[in-house]
Structure formats: C-alpha cells, structure tokens
Amino acid sequence: MNDLPICVTCGVQYAGPRENCPICDDERQYVGWEGQRWTSLDELRRTGHRMKIAEEGAGVVGVGTDPATAIGQRALLVRTPAGNVLWDMVTHLDDDVIKEVGELGGIDAIAISHPHFYGSMVEWAHAFDAPIHIHAADREWVARPDESVVFWEGDTHEVLEGLTLINAGVHFDGGQVMHWRDGEEGRGALFSGDILQVVQDRRWVGFMYSYPNLIPERPRTVRRALSLLEPYSFERVYGGWWKRVVHTDGAEVVRRSADRYLTFALDDSSQE
Questions:
Q1: Confidence (pTM)
Q2: How many CB atoms lie within 10 A of CB 60?
C-alpha cells in the first residue's frame, strides 16, 4: 500500500487518510511547526530516498534511510543461528533493501521498542512474512492494525532462542528492550532504542518520558526497569541511531546511569 499516509514528523504509516497523527499529538512528541504534514512510500521513492545498510557490530547490521526521514533512527538486523530479528523500524522500504536483507538471511521476526519507531512496520512484515512483536500496553498506538502484529503481555517474552524482549516500561508503558544472550561472544548485548537512550557521551544512557519536550521519566519507572534488567548480562548497548553504541561494560553503564539519574531527580534538599 505505497500510497498510505505517513506522518512527516514521526514517520509512522497509517491505515488510511486522516487529519491528525495521535502519536504526534501526544505530549511525548509534537506536531511539526508547519502543522500536520503527510507523505507516502511512493513520494519518498520519488524524492530520492534510499536505504543504507552497514555493519554496526558483530552479527548486527544497521538498516537506515538516506536522507533520513522523520526522527532519523535506524533499525538493526540481528543475525543469529536461531534466525534473524529486525529490531526497531524505519519508514522507507524499497525493492533494493528487500533484496539485500533477503541475501543476509531475511527476517524471521520484528520487534519495535516503542510507537515513535513504528514506521512502515506492516509493509516490512508483509515483505518478509514476519510477525511484529509489540507489548500489549502499547496496543492503542498501533496506527495500522494488521494480523502480523502480535501483542505479548507480562515482563519478558522470548522472540527466538536467546533473544528476549523485556518490558522496561520507560518512555511508554509498553516500552521494550531486547537482550541477546549470545551477543558479543557470549557476553551479551542489549538493544534499547531510546527506551534507554544512548547519549552523546556513550559511557552513559538516559531515561526520559519525552525527549523532544524534556519531560523526565518517573523514578519508580526507572527503578522497575533496572530491576527487570538485573538478571541479564550484556557488554554492549545498541541505541536507536547510527553509532549510538555503548561498547563495553553495558550492564554497569545502565546501573550507574540509573543511579546518577535518580540522584538528580530525587534531590530535593535545600541549598545553603
């Protein structure tokens, strides 16, 4: 459905014409300063958008768009002996990337961290005959309902052997991260989108309810996320944009980042 409307600001494709984008109307996002604008896959192809594919780590291939669309994130194709998972999503899709990803083994499952990254997820699911795994707490934000979308409940969900979704609940109630047990030669890897945001200083991650509007996440939510991640070991943390990667001591980086965040968020002592 190459003519379906896509929000220019967030890059999410909708099932049919509409006046507004609920995802951008929400306080975590924003409507573009020029007002609500729409595009489509047909228009993106006409205006010269192409896919960019490049290695981001061992067994991890970045899939992005050039020039970037909407928020500018890239997805990650995680290649494992149990199958390939496309983590997170982009808006664009064309025949060239379908061929290239097919040559890399295709896609056995799709998992997306949160609604701002839903992009053209149904188009990708149909192209590769792959289910989309989304936490049920974010059901209301699915802009194009489809049988390919699989909603899961609870704290964790194994997508493929060794690849586990964790409902961290930061940023969105259904916000999820993915742990790869065998990544980094068995030391583990965490794919965080911007549920845990790998910041410019890549020795740290951040926790926000809204990034563009600078609304901090609730301390109790951060504590819950930290508790759920505690059993998992991981050396790397892959964020949502090119090169936004914590390369070493990932689990410790998340712990100390949460400690720093909570120290600042909860410091209400008076100053002399």
A1: 0.96
A2: 20
